[in-house]
Write a structure and sequence with these properties.
GO terms for molecular function: ATP binding; protein-glycine ligase activity, initiating. This protein is α+β, with helices and mostly antiparallel strands. Helix content is about 35%, strand content about 15%. The chain folds into 3 domains: about 70 residues; about 220 residues, D-amino Acid Aminotransferase, Chain A, domain 1; about 170 residues, no CATH class. Helix 2 crosses helix 3.
Length: about 525
């Protein structure tokens, strides 16, 4: 009766072991362990009486099963579970500690994060475009139309970038995508018949002029010159966008050439320079107009597709069916084309943090994290999942390709310490502490503040989250998503160590620190308290 009680739901042996070591007693739920309720607590009727004591000594779980039976009618002081919805609400009392908050889908689903960050500029002086690739919910008519306009504008900017790849009046050549490697999208949607161009053939000279005119009008809108002149949206002018896109596709993806005069080259350079002052994502968006389509509430890479064609995005959003995804509940996000790779391979960062209170918002950042690598070399001309989705749950299905750099770790995982050593070899030793970590902290805090009013919080509870980041060529971190139940299943020696550490340190933070404010909290640091 003097013991504190805990309940663990899910595969968390570290949590169970750490709490037992503190003298806590586990109340096992009916679906867990042996059903001792049907037996007298002081006897194991399937054993002869003389063997009971010996069995208790030999089986370390037997004493825990017995203790669990003795506390079967007591409510747990602490609950650690996979999902809050999976917890028997009879167990939830005002004063017990639970490792989840309610209604966190406002920032832990792709759809929720997209919506919350749209509201960020109204909450604080922060621009989500500086850390979150622009994103649209395709099930919302206004946002779908905004995406179509964004796709058109990005195509026009991309054309100017392609036109500047070679100097002077010489034709600009672009890399041709092999027919056998146009990505996973082809398995989902049949391409409409596009006109084909022989590599090196020139397109109509007015194509660059049209792209420059679109960019000029867009720049005027961005600079608020439209307030007095009421400049129409560049996407609602007389340009035939379908025809423009077909010619753009030929240049960007089919190897067609462009002829650029010196005057056009100078104008393109000036336009892009001015646009860069207004568009934080101009550099990272690249020049191939690649977008990534995601089911709005799925995780572990389910249903995610990369594509370069507007018609495919719209068709896929309404025709594809992923498990448990409602029609229309898709988001489309700009793909980070200019990203940092390691040994020619794409990677992302899984970064943990804990929220211990929402009013006042209190956030703890974990100083250790890990990198996840893809199984095949990075290529913007080959859009299959093995090259572009870093999720462990996706990459476990792929073998490392023969053309992969042998320096990429076999288990596709690095610690942040290994990454820092790599940055030092690049001559960028300060990038981790001066650019990446501050950028990740700022992005996490902005995401939390944007959704703060939506979360239903419980005093005394907490939640451990896993944020996923890509790294741009300039070492700028780009937030992709935030997970409310980050996996603790080790897939490598690095994650075995780090996942165990973050669980131990989380318990130190939310339990030990309550009794002793000077107790160690491991690798956690307080980064924000309102």
């Amino acid at each position: 009766q003097e013991k504190k009680i805990f309940t663990v739901q899910g595969p968390y042996p570290i949590i169970r072991r750490e709490l037992r070591a503190r003298g806590w007693v586990e109340r096992k739920l009916p679906s867990m362990g042996r059903q001792l309720e049907q037996h007298h607590p002081l006897h194991y009727p399937w054993l002869p009486a003389e063997e009971e004591e010996e069995q208790c000594d030999e089986n370390p779980n037997s004493i825990h099963d017995l203790m669990s039976y003795l506390v079967r009618d007591r409510l747990p002081n602490f609950i650690w579970t996979n999902f809050l919805d999976a917890t028997d609400h009879k167990l939830l009392q005002q004063d017990n500690v639970v490792n989840h908050y309610a209604r966190v889908d406002a920032f832990t689903t792709k759809e929720g994060l997209c919506l919350s960050l749209q509201k960020l500029p109204w909450i604080e002086q922060a621009d989500p475009n500086t850390f979150f690739p622009r994103c649209y919910r395709l099930g919302i008519v206004d946002e779908r139309e905004a995406f179509i306009e964004d796709f058109h504008l990005t195509a026009a900017r991309s054309l100017l970038k392609l036109a500047l790849e070679e100097a002077g009046d010489r034709p600009v050549r672009t890399q041709q995508v092999p027919n056998s490697a146009k990505g996973a999208v082809e398995s989902h949607v049949s391409h409409p018949k596009h006109s084909t161009a022989q590599p090196g053939s020139s397109l109509y000279p007015e194509l660059v002029e049209e792209a420059m005119e679109v960019c000029k009008q867009h720049l005027g809108v961005l600079q608020h010159q439209d307030i007095d002149r009421r400049t129409p949206s560049p996407c609602r002018t007389c340009i035939d966008w379908e025809h423009f896109l077909q010619r753009y596709y030929r240049v960007a993806h089919e190897g067609a050439g462009l002829v650029l005069t010196k005057q056009q080259r100078k104008e393109c350079q000036n336009l892009l320079r001015h646009l860069a002052e207004q568009l934080p994502q101009l550099d990272m968006e690249g020049k191939l107009n690649i977008w990534i389509l995601k089911p709005g509430a799925e995780s572990q890479g389910r249903g995610i597709i990369c594509t370069t064609r507007l018609e495919e995005v719209l068709q896929l959003a309404w025709s594809c069916t992923a498990p448990s995804v409602q029609v229309g509940r898709w988001v489309v996000q700009k793909y980070v084309e200019r990203l940092l790779t390691i040994f020619g391979t794409k990677f992302d960062i899984r970064q943990w943090f804990v929220v211990t209170d929402w009013k006042p918002l209190t956030v703890w950042f974990y100083r250790d994290c890990y990198l996840r690598f893809c199984s095949r070399p990075f290529s913007l001309c080959r859009l299959e999942r093995a090259r572009h989705l870093c999720n462990v749950s996706v990459q476990k299905w792929y073998k490392t390709s023969p053309d992969q750099d042998p320096r990429v770790p076999r288990d596709k995982i690095w610690s942040n310490k290994q990454f820092q050593e790599y940055l030092a070899q690049l001559g960028q030793a300060d990038a981790w502490h001066q650019v990446l970590v501050p950028g990740m902290k700022a992005a996490i805090l902005s995401a939390l503040r944007s959704a703060q009013d939506q979360v239903r919080f419980r005093k005394g509870s907490f939640e451990l989250y896993g944020a996923d980041f890509l790294v741009g060529e300039d070492f700028q971190p780009w937030l992709l998503e935030i997970n409310s139940c980050p996996t603790m299943s080790p897939s490598s020696a690095v994650t075995r160590r780090l996942c165990a550490n973050v669980q131990r340190d989380t318990l130190c933070l939310v339990l030990d620190r309550k009794d002793n404010s000077t107790s160690s909290i491991g690798a956690f640091e307080l980064i924000y308290k309102e």
